Structure formats: structure tokens, C-alpha cells
Amino acid sequence: MPEPDAGTIARKSEIVAALQAVVPGEGVIFDAEELAAYESDGLTAYRQPPLIVVLPETVEQVSAVLRYCNEQKVKVVPRGAGTSLSGGSLPLADGIILGLGKFNRILDIDYDNRCAVVQPGVTNLGITKAVEHRGFYYAPDPSSQIACSIGGNIAENSGGVHCLKYGLTTNNVLGIELVLMDGTVMRLGGKHLEAEGYDLLGLLTGSEGLLGVVTEVTVRLLRQPATARALLLGFESSEAAGDCVAAVIAAGIIPGGMEMMDRPAIHAAEDFVQAGYPRYVEALLIVELDGPEAEVDYLIFRCSEIAKAKGAVYERVSKNEEERAVFWAGRKAAFPAVGRISPDYYCMDGTIPRHRLPEVLRRMRELSEHYGLRVANVFHAGDGNLHPLILYDANVPGELERCEAFGAEILKLCVEVGGVLTGEHGVGVEKRDLMPSMFSEIDLKQQQRVKCAFDPDHLLNPGKVFPQLHRCAELGRMHIHRGQMPFPDIPRF
């Protein structure tokens, strides 16, 4: 992480007083014991108490806080619910945490235009709960949807079990209100479906808090499908299950969701939820088909045929909505369930081409033996998004370091077979130093030029995403101060 600025830390009392003038009452936290609650996010292996935490309630307060920090050159780390698994909201010793937890209201539900306007602190599941009585829902559904906030979903471009058919956050966000580092408030998109010009909305979605702070979001609402049924398929090997995934997609079938768990994850989830999963199989697929009833019946039949041809040894179809929910409950609870069988685990996130899944599973097994660490695998199998859970004990000297090395090898493997470093968890600090395995120096510098356009002093979430941060001047940016161009005698074309 960047070396803390001693001068900023020495000015803590002055900064606290200035922020209290903007956010009165209990909106500024600076006591050491109270700051401990913010010292990490979902990637708990890394911890660092922030200098100060600020909890604004209005857009005007957010703008004033950022303007002050920009003028005083104080670093800012935006934070939603803190469920990030890549260290995206890891604090800085010389920076403030800008928490958006008080931005938790649904501002408008427009059923005619099938969209809702919400504040960034609204939980992912909260949107669906607000509209389900009218037969609508919000499609992206990360496993942490009961807790994660929609602002954080935008920062990481979150997905979920149903993103195969209905897309990631970027496919379901129509507009945002954004506050830049200098305090400028701007709007991108809205209730309309498309806009002319550069796709700045797409640029901001997945920008991991490096470009601005989202204060309002317009999301797309979808109609609940007429019918949705889940199919459980068990296989004697993970490779056979991987072959089945590729065959289903190759047959032109796009399930609403297509998830995979291996034996350790199956047993952990079954012990935790009692979903009725078969314990004797090595891999389990959950395939959800939705749409008109006749179409769903046909697709279940086709998927069953494909699965049998690929060696399925277990099949079960949900009989009603309650049973379908139970099937998914086991998958949704897989992460906490694995926490019951190991003192610690490291949740990875990489994406590969679907047809390489059997090969990647085989090589991951070899890596597991090499590093001497067990792995429980949970996959968004339909879109190739892998979530290997590496089991370790942080109290055993050297085991965390061995776990990190194992995880790095998995992510490099994803890139090697034509995939990417992250599918939905983001880069943060976890994958930052692996970025050169996927991007060239030219690629990374071009990305940093975008960063410079929004945040020229690198005050927003520094230390994340980029393995080596260049000053904007080093990237060819020309700064014109008070209308005076530097070196005016140099010819320009």
C-alpha cells in the first residue's frame, strides 16, 4: 500500500474539525476503538484502521467532504457495506473512509418504465423485496445480496447466480448520480435505455471507487418469469460436470442460472442447510430454467438428456417454488457453510472460457496437492466464473502465504487458458500485483490515463487495482495552470 503521509496524520485533529463542520453530530468517527469496525472488508486477511470515518447523509455533504479532501490533499476510500472480497475498501492510515451506509432509501419505483431509483446504501435484495409484490425483481443476485449494497455492486460490477441469462450489474443499471473528487456532481444515463456519446456509465460500473462516488442509482426491473424450475444433476467427477455445462450451452440453451459445487462444498452446504443434496456425487449442477411453462418443461427434458449422455448419476427436479428455493438456499449459503469446516478460507474469483472448465479443474487439483491445501469449489459454471475456496489456518505459520501463492497460481491459470483475473469481485489489492499477467504496460498506462482524467492527484482509493501508479505528468498529461501553458516556446502541432 502507499506509504502513509506523516503530515496528513499529524493534521488529524484539524481534519476532524473541518469534517465535523460539514457532517455534524455522530457523522465523523475518529476514536481508535470505533475505527476498528472499519479496518477491513470481506477480505479479512488484510487490516488497516483508517485515519477517520465520515458518514454523510446528503449529496451536498458528500460533495463538500470530497471538495475539502481535494483541496487539502487527503486520500478518500469510498465504502458501501464492506462485503468486498478483494480488499476494494481496505482503508489507508492517512485517509478517510467515506461510508455511504446512510444513503439507504428507495427514492422512486416506476413500474411503467420498469425501473427504480435508489440510493447506493440500499441492499441488493432490498430492491427485489420492494417490488416483488407487483411481480417484479432486480436480476443481479450476488451470494451476499442480503447484505451487499447497490453502490458496492456498481463499484465491482457484481454478478450472481442468474447473471448468465440476465447479465451483470452493468447490464441492469440505467443511470447514476456521481460526485467527483473535486466535489462536482454529475449525472449519467437515466430512465431512458440508451444515450449518445461515450459510454461513461459503462466506464464507471466496475471502476472500484477510483473515479468517483456514486450517490444515486437507476436500475432496471424485470418481470418475474411465468415459471421457474431447478434441476439438480449429480456426476461422478467434476470433469464430467464441466463437460455437461459446455454441452448445455452448445445446444443453444441459456439457463436462468447454472451453478456447480464439488464434493467438499456439497457436504458443507448440506450440513448447513439440509437442501437434500446427494452426498455420494463428486460434483453437483444446479440448472434453473425459466419462461413459459411449456418451454421450461421442454428445456428440462433437453438438459436431462444432455446430462445423461455426459454421465449424470443423479437427477431431481423441483416440484414447486418452495423446493426450488431450497435448492438455491444451499448454493447461496455455500460460503458461510465452508466456514464451518475450516478455520479460514480464501475466496478466489476468476473467469475462464466454459470449454476449458474440465482442464482447469484438473490442474487446480494438481495445484492443491502441490501446495498441500484443500479446495472447495463453487462456480457460476454457466458463464465460467470460478470461486475456488482455499482452506487454510492463519494460525499456522506460513500457511496464509502458501494460500496466497496457491491463489495467484489459480488466477494465472485463468488468464493462461484465455480467461480473466476477475469476474465480479474486482481487483482491489488482492489481484493488483497480478495485473501485468493480463495487461501490458501500455494497457495499464492507458487505464491510468482514465484515472488521471477523473482524479489527477490520485486521492480516490489509491493503492488499488494498479500495481505501479504513475504520476499523471509521466503519462503525458499536460497541465495548464491559470491559462498558462508550460514551456510556451515549444512548437505544438
From TrEMBL:
InterPro entries, sorted: FAD-bd_oxidored_4_C, FAD-bd_PCMH, FAD-bd_PCMH-like_sf, FAD-bd_PCMH_sub2, FAD-linked_Oxase-like_C, FAD-linked_OxidoTrans_Type4, Oxid_FAD_bind_N, Vanillyl_alc_oxidase_C-sub2
The UniProt record lists the keyword Translocase: no
Domain FAD-binding PCMH-type, first and last residues per copy: 46-224
Keyword annotations: FAD, Flavoprotein, Oxidoreductase
Coiled coil: none
SUPFAM superfamilies: FAD-binding/transporter-associated domain-like, FAD-linked oxidases, C-terminal domain
Cofactor annotation: FAD
UniProt protein name: FAD-linked oxidase C-terminal domain-containing protein
Upper taxonomic lineage: Bacteria, Pseudomonadati, Pseudomonadota, Alphaproteobacteria, Rhodospirillales
